[in-house]
Design goal:
Length: 125
């Protein structure tokens, strides 16, 4: 359990030297038939996640995120989103300019990245 967190923290710090330009990003979770279940969009202007559930099947959409704070400490969290199809919610943050954010979106057991931090989507605040 501890090793994946250390691996993600190490991966996040590799590009932390100069501040990167802001970068919006999109993560989508698909079912086994390639149907989009939900998406999480990171919007760098405003440091926010916009979480949308597209499927009427399954549970709630969830966005999980990780980053290194400006003071060098590791931060992770998640936001529970809608369970109804076609509904979007926005979650605002203040990550700090140039911070690398990794995130994924999930609905039930379907996620856009693996649990151990592989294939997570990258955005820059």
């Amino acid at each position: 359990m501890f090793a994946p967190i250390v691996a993600v923290a190490a991966a996040l710090t590799l590009g932390a030297a100069p501040a990167a330009p802001s970068l919006d990003a999109l993560a989508q979770a698909y079912d086994e038939t390639s149907h989009v279940l939900a998406e999480a969009r990171f919007v760098s202007a405003g440091d926010s996640f916009r979480l949308t559930k597209w499927s009427s099947d399954g549970g709630r959409a969830v966005v999980q995120y990780k980053y290194i704070r400006t003071d060098g400490t590791f931060q992770s969290g998640e936001h529970l989103g809608p369970s109804a199809a076609g509904v979007s919610v926005t979650f605002d943050h203040d990550f700090g300019e140039g911070r690398k954010i990794v995130f994924r979106v999930c609905v039930d057991d379907y996620c856009s990245g693996t649990g151990d931090g592989q294939n997570w989507t990258i955005g820059y605040a």
